[in-house]
Design brief:
By secondary structure, the protein is α+β, with helices and mostly antiparallel strands. It is built from 2 helices and 6 strands, in the order ααββββββ. The protein has helices spanning 9-26, 38-45, and strands at residues 54-60, 66-73, 76-96, 99-119, 123-130, 136-144. The longest helix has 18 residues, at 9-26. It is globular and about 40 Å long. Mean pLDDT is 85; it is low at 11-29.
C-alpha cells in the first residue's frame, strides 16, 4: 500500500484534476456532418469578401470530388481561401484551360488556409474539392489578390 504524506496529497489532486480537464477538452465531440448547417458555418469559416470569382461550400459525404467551374476568369493572381471541419484534411485542385495550376489543402479543424494562385491566361477556372477523410464540410472562395 502506498502512503502519501499530507503535504503531497493536494499537489496530487491538482495533477489528477488537470489531467481530467485536459482529457475532456481533447475529446470534444466531432462536428455532426449529417446535420451541419453549412451556410451558417461558412459565414464564420470564411471572411466576407468582394469580387469573388468562384466559391462553393457543402458536405463531402464520400470520397467523390465536388467540382465547380467559373467561366472566363481573367489572367492574374488570386487568393484561394479554404476551410473545412469534421476531421482530417480537404484538398482543392485548381485548374484552368484543362491544366492543373495549383493544389492546396486545409486541415479540417475549423481553421482557415490561404493559397495564392496565378491564372496564366483568361479561361474557365475549375476547383475540385475532395477528401479521403469524409465525411466533412468545406468552403472556399477565390478573389483577386490584393496589390
Amino acid at each position: 500500500m502506498l502512503i502519501f504524506s499530507s503535504a503531497r496529497r493536494p499537489a496530487g489532486l491538482v495533477a489528477v484534476a488537470a489531467a481530467t480537464l485536459l482529457a475532456a477538452t481533447a475529446c470534444q465531440q466531432p462536428v455532426d456532418i449529417a446535420h451541419a448547417d453549412v451556410p451558417a458555418w461558412k459565414k464564420d469559416a470564411l471572411p466576407a469578401a468582394t469580387g469573388v470569382v468562384l466559391e462553393d461550400s457543402g458536405k463531402i459525404l464520400n470520397r467523390d470530388p465536388i467540382v465547380k467551374d467559373s467561366p472566363s476568369v481573367a489572367a492574374g493572381t488570386y487568393t484561394l481561401t479554404m476551410a473545412c471541419d469534421g476531421g482530417g484534411k480537404a484538398f482543392f485542385a485548381v485548374s484552368t484551360g484543362g491544366k492543373q495550376i495549383a493544389d492546396a489543402g486545409a486541415a479540417c479543424n475549423g481553421s482557415r488556409e490561404v493559397a495564392k494562385i496565378k491564372v496564366p491566361a483568361t479561361a474557365d477556372l475549375s476547383i475540385s474539392a475532395s477528401s479521403v477523410d469524409a465525411p466533412l464540410i468545406f468552403a472556399y472562395q477565390v478573389v483577386p489578390a490584393a496589390g
